[in-house]
Amino acid sequence: MAETQPPTASDTPSASAAPAVAIRVAPSPHLCDAHLTTRGMMIDVLVGLAPVLVMAVLVFHWYAVVQVGLCVLSCLVAEVVFTRIRRKPIPIGDYSAAVTGVILGLSLPWGAPWYIGVLGSVVAIGLGKVVFGGLGFNIFNPAMVGRAFVMLSFAKELGASAYVVTRSNLEVLTQATPLTIAKQFAADLAAGKVVAFEQPVQLEHAKAFWPLFIGQVNGSPGETSALALLVGGIYLCIRRAAAWQIPAGIFLTTVAFAAAAHGSMLTPFNALHHLISGSVLFGAFFIATDPVTSPVTSTGKFLFGLGIGLLVVLVRVFSGYPEGVMFAVLVMNAVVPLINRWTIPRPLGGPVPRKD
Amino acid sequence: MSIAARRTTRRRTFARGVHPDEQKQLAAGCPIEALPTPPEVRIALLQHLGAPCQATVEPRSEVAVGDVVGRAEAFVSAPVHASVAGTVARAAMATLPNGRHVAVVPIRAAEQQPLAGEPLIEDVFGGDWPLERLDRYEPLQIVEAARAAGLVGQGGAAFPTHVKLSPNQQKPIATVLVNGCECEPYLAADYRLMLEAPAPVLAGALLAGRAAGAAEVIIGIEDNKPEALETLRTAARRTPVVVQPLKTKYPQGGEKQLIAAVLNKVVPGGGLPLDIGVVVINIGTAAALARAVLRGKPLTHRVLTVSGGGIRRPRNLLVPIGASYRELIEACGGLKEDAARVVAGGPMMGFTVGGLDVPVTKGTSGVTVLSREEIAKAAETPCVRCGRCVEVCPMGLVPTKLALATRVRNAALAQRYHVAACIECGCCAYACPAKLPLVQLIRLGKIMTS
Question: Is the CB of A340 inside 8 Å of chain B's CB atoms?
């Protein structure tokens, strides 16, 4: 698509005042939407993440600052190092590594040791992105690849207990995360254990709507405040940096299957609790909507969302993990090429019959 | 409220599409002026879709305005006429903006022209245009007049008009749609024509309806041209012509999109509007049809817009067919220093020219000179699969996959994603945040699969 050498408009001197201007030939269209760039989309994601970051800092103080800062820094460094190894131009300017860093930092338990954030970032960028060819070519969400790697490698450091500090000046940190409480309760119930007196109290506490909505609960720094996530997420959808079909699909199946599970006494949380606790909102608005790892058509995006919502509830209810957004996103990422194939849209007027 | 009345008040549109910066203000306020007679015109012998013409004049012979200089023998072809009085020069070749190298008949203009300037405009658009009792013209008489006048679509594709209007037993025509969208940015020629000469436009629309045997004649106009809507509505009050306002969106003037917007009908894939009983003609074509039928005048002149950020004084000009772009640009004050591309037509689908010695053809809707600033583009990045191109494609395709298919030379993939349905409007490349040349790659893909 390179432009050819410029012939000059005034190759023969003419009486007109036209200066010797070089005009070039190029294929149409000759205009583009200047307000829309890849970098602009990434900056929009960062802006959408801002309210989440603010709430994270308000609830988790310097834990959140250190963790997110460390992850962003490691992601940027990892991007430079890995791209240099590939001998490709350094694409830091597109801000995508920064987005990965912020999302990873916000999704790890607040109390993760520093090296876990660093290692997660290196894996996210290296194995999650650059080995596939960099931005636009990766199959799995890089932040989730990094997170999955450290969560499985450091199960002890990052398990449910990583969230709880019995003596802390931050009150939220002394309690288990709401989903862990729900999981424990369901497990005890299933095992036919006598439900201890404290547990229902704890459970009632975990089910209180306002702390869950505002974010005054324990959890990963990015996931606790439903309010901040809604503000940032709606901003993303309005700016169309995120496709609304993905969160819509996720919410639909999360609510439907969580309601069914609650109705079948499989989980003590009702649909609303499932929606605003854990990282359903964070995942729906900021993780699953990564354009690179989601389908290209709107139907495909909606199906992708539906699949994630279903998997989240399945993992939460039937697996040993209290939360399933990460696994749901990664599994559905793997299905994206298939979804793309299934959702090839019918062109206006139907396919053109072949002439042979 | 009747159905017909409701249709005229509600603005309609098609699905998807884009909103490029219209930039109509550059030329919309400029009344149509006649280009001073150029010293030479070069009449291309192939300026339409179909078979080329055979030259009928020898060098050094004298021709008058309207004399046939190229004869059309095939059905899908259109004769060409002298647009100035003068002497035929030695046959030559010229390269048209679409890249075709064609034979031209050059004519040196005589000192004395029968009509120039204001009287020429008066002759082309002035006088009385009857809007009633047009049924005294038989359909075949109208079709023959269109053929003899060398009428072709003036919107760009230049398909011979008589072919479209010819009665077809198998495919009766229910609707004639007149395309007043002019959805390409910058262009304002159709707008000025509707404003300054509504009568010939309406007469031509009615004649086209009569020729095709259509029960309804509808003029679709985007709502960024309220004055044109109002003018035509007033002029059409006593006629059966319906003036339909449309939302401003690119490519509203695409044939398939216009039909979808106005009639809510879909042209089948690989088919023609004819297949669903519709004929679409351009505003300029309608006016030229009226002139051909009512006055027996061939298509020798057309209105076009010279605009863009790279031209000193944008204008709307009545231009003899065959005038060179150089003449047009000089009549508009010349190029500015930052002129970067000279485009035949509008900036979304127009072809750039490599030099200014290009002759105007019947399909030249404008010359857009774009400045460096106007074509400025951010650096290309890899596709992030955001799906913007899918959201804007008016044909419902997946442009990013089609572009990928071309890049990896996978014809089967291109076909699976319906490459043949692409109308090359350029919405995908316009909207792409990664600034990828999507439609450009898809064009290559079409060649690859054909």
Answer: yes
Print the domain residue range for B192.
Answer: 1-38+115-376
Which residue blocks in B99-174 are alpha helix, DSSP H? 118-125, 139-148, 161-165
Q: Find, among A223, A213, A275, the residue nearest to A250 by Cα.
A: A275
Contact A27 B437 (CB under 8 A): yes
pTM (predicted TM-score): 0.89
Same domain, B237 and B315: yes
Q: How many structural domains comprise chain A?
A: 2
CB distance from B210 to chain A under 8 Å? Answer: no
Q: Are strands B101-109 and B40-44 parallel, antiparallel or unpaired?
A: antiparallel
Query: Which of B214, B241, B73 shows the shortest CA–CA distance to B139?
Result: B214
How many domains does the structure of chain B reveal?
2
Cα–Cα distance for residue pair B89/B42, rounded to 1 Å: 9
Across chain A, mean pLDDT equals 86
State the ipTM, two decimals: 0.87
Our CA angle for A44, A224, A66, nearest 5°, is 70
Q: Does one domain contain both B147 and B276? A: yes
> A-chain residues within 8 Å CB-CB of B333?
17
Over residues A241-250, mean pLDDT: 95
Report the mean per-residue pLDDT for chain B.
92
Burial of A151 (0-12, 13-18, 19+ CB in 10 A): buried
- Helix pair angle (A96-107, A38-60), 10° resolution: 20
Q: Count Cβ neighbours within 10 Å for each residue of B190-209 and write b for 16 or more, e otherwise.
A: bbbbbbbbbbbbbbbbbbbb
- Is the pLDDT confidence value at B119 over 50? yes
Statement: residue B159 has pLDDT above 50: yes
Residue A348: inside a domain: no
